[in-house]
Amino acid sequence: MIAEAIGGWLTNSLALVADAGHMLTDVAALSLTLGAIWFGSRAATSRKTYGYYRLEILAAFVNGIALVLLSAWIVYEAVARWQAPQEVAGLEMSLIAAGGLAVNIIAAYLLHAGHKHDLNMRGAFLHVMGDLLGSVTAITAGVLIIAFGWLWADAAGSILISIIIVVSAWRLILESVNVLLEGTPSHIDIRAVEAVILETEGVAGVHDLHVWTISSGIEALSAHISHDVEIAASELLYRVKNRLHDSFGIDHLTIQMETLSRETEAIFICDTGTRCFEPASSSRASDAAVKAGR
């Protein structure tokens, strides 16, 4: 970042300055990522029952917004430069951008393994990929300036870098907002989840079905499942839990079992391990609710 900032100033290259500015946001983004990972590893408390998992999503959202704002500034400067092209040292610009490209390739390799399963890591990976493409664009602009004297290539390269940044940032923002609004994860079809539950032997109906993301790779589900009185709720729960795990990888479940008359029998909670349990107070609360006509 420092090398490209100084190099951009010395060579009068907006593309290098833009790439350095992008790297500046990367420093902040990677710091947010590390901070979110550290906070996310802290144990849950009575006031933070899910722990600090959502900090990862907030960090990803902030990263996306920062990228969009940076892109707007780059475009503004590029338009001004396009209208009044300035001399740019093409050779030095290309050499500095090539150094940035080498660093970004190493960083992308290091982050690649975790970006598919972690939204925050994906944000960091997208930052680095944007830098990598930005370095390629800056090198190309430098070559065009050296070969043909096209000074406008510097401004054009800056605008192209901005487009690359906005496309990746917009996807990141949309995914982050969907998680914060507790929307259904994009890779899960809620109708398919309902169908799998209904196809389970012993299930008579399902309603109030919700699936949401706690944090990257951690999905939760809550539902009311009705069944015949003759069927044991615990046995039916075991079948449903296994089917949801095998079909969608969902293990964090809160399921309220009901008879066909919609009378609540018990609320079962399944953790991310293999256990499902009925809270000690749920049976008494359910009996009280039935007696009260609720």
List its salient traits.
alpha+beta, 9 helices, elongated, disordered C terminus
How far is the N terminus from the C terminus? 63 Å
Beta percentage is 5-15%
Beta-strand segment tally: 5
Average predicted local confidence, pLDDT: 79
Order of helices and strands: HHHHHHHEEHEEEH
Largest sheet: 5 strands, mixed
Radius of gyration, whole Å = 26 Å
Uncertain ranges: 281-294
Shape: elongated
Task: Tell me the strand order in the biggest sheet.
Answer: 1-2-3-4-5
Model description:
With 294 residues, this protein is α+β, with helices and mostly antiparallel strands. The protein has helices at 2-11, 14-40, 54-83, 90-112, 119-148, 152-180, 190-199, 233-248, 282-291, and strands spanning 203-215, 218-227, 252-259, 264-270, 276-277. Helix content is 63%, strand content 14%. The chain has a five-stranded mixed beta sheet with strand order 1-2-3-4-5. The chain starts with a helix and ends with a helix.
Briefly summarize what is shown.
The chain contains nine helices and five strands.
Summarize the helices and strands and which ones pair or pack:
Layout: H1 2-11, H2 14-40, H3 54-83, H4 90-112, H5 119-148, H6 152-180, H7 190-199, E1 203-215, E2 218-227, H8 233-248, E3 252-259, E4 264-270, E5 276-277, H9 282-291
Parallel strand pairs: 2-3
Antiparallel strand pairs: 1-2, 3-4, 4-5
